[in-house]
Amino acid sequence: MAAYGLYTHIASNKTRSMLLLGGLFVLIYVLVYAGALIAEVMIRSDATAPYYLRAALNDLIKALPWATLGTAAWIAIAYRFHQSIIDAVTGGEAVTRQQQPRLYNLLENLCISRGIPMPKLKIMDSPALNAFATGLNQRQYAITVTTGLLAALNDQEVEAVLGHELTHIRNGDVQMMVVAVIIAGVVGFVGELFFRLFTNVSWGGGWGWGSSRRSSSSSGSARKGTSGAAVVVIIIAVVLIVLAWLLSQVIKLALSRTRETLADAGSVELTKNPDAMISALRKIEGRGELPGATSAVMELCVDNPREGFADLFATHPSVESRIQALVKFAGGRDPGPLLLPAESNQPGDPQIDPRPDADQSPPLPGPWGRSQPTPADPPPQGPWSDPGPSSGPRGRH
After folding, report:
1. Are 190 and 35 in contact (CB under 8 A)?
2. How does pLDDT run across 107-141, given as a tens digit for each residue?
């Protein structure tokens, strides 16, 4: 995460990403093999296990070009229409400088300062605090920001979030994540298709397992043995389908988790302001849920509050760990959890300090380290203090 190693990390991450995406294609072929196993059992239910394995392998070899072309066609469709699909789901709309001068100028200044082509700017009408980048090439790149984030964050914090998303674009994260989501979607779709096919087949007589019309006891026992082989092969196919789906999710998470920390570092590199990135994360923390958004969209966001079982399928590292990295490697200061103005004005909560600067930064060392007296401190003396009822109105303001 140190500045001198940032580009080394980016290059290494891109290499790993390409390998992981190649692994996703392998998972497609694993699913095809699992489907071939099921198909062979449906065609012939009285064969041996080695026969099923060899026949399914031959089917895979024959289907390999078609599986590759089908996956490529899926990616081509998503390449062309993914932005339209995301906009339809989130309601994001493109804006101009006249419509959003504050946001437009912040993004433009960042792009000009580093010679980065400016992506499209979109606004999503939502009280959630979040933002995300999309696109697969320079013509498609876009950054979408929610209205809730614009209302809750100051200019420096909004600039830090924009820098985070620009880093995702610069590092190639957006393309990798979109393609990973596409291929993971193929894995999920094909896996669900096989499961539906598998559960809708009659076990009693659909494959001839439940009844034996042979009269001899020897042929009956042989049929019983081969039916057992078919069951074993079906179990293998189901295990392969489940394993492919789980690995597709793990690969997708591996692409996402490491990139978020790098994007935070890239934002600091662009803005030279680690404190702004930290305070932005503190404000976004726990407030980024986009109602109605799919998991694929949430995986592209600055923060994804959705967590899987025991955090196993969480697509983002925790905000706490990201802030700790910024404090350790970028020299930022952590103000701790922050309350938004709307939250700090809740009735019946006398412990909340409604001042806009409250809890915005940790105490400074030295003589300025204590900004207000603690209960153990003596009352301040001077012409502006309140000496008590006997002193009259002097000193009140």
Report:
1. yes
2. 999 999 888 899 999 999 999 999 999 988 888 89
Share of the chain above pLDDT 70, in %: 70
Please report, for the chain, the start and end positions of each structural domain, with discontinuous segments joined by +: 3-88+173-208+222-255
Catalytic residue among 157, 159, 165, 260, which? 165
Environment class of residue 360 by beta-carbon count within 10 Å: exposed (0-12), middle (13-18) or buried (19+)? middle
Q: What are phi and psi of 93, to 5 degrees?
A: -130, 135
Q: CA 281 to CA 336: how far, in whole Å? A: 10
What tokens appear for 179 in the block? 């393609």
Structure-token match 């999503």, residue found: 124
Catalytic residue at 165? yes
Range in 61-65, 104-108, 188-192, 202-206 with the lowest mean pLDDT: 202-206
Query: At residue 397, does pLDDT exceed 50?
Result: no
One-letter amino acid of 275? D
Which residues lie across from 177 on neighbouring strands? Answer: none
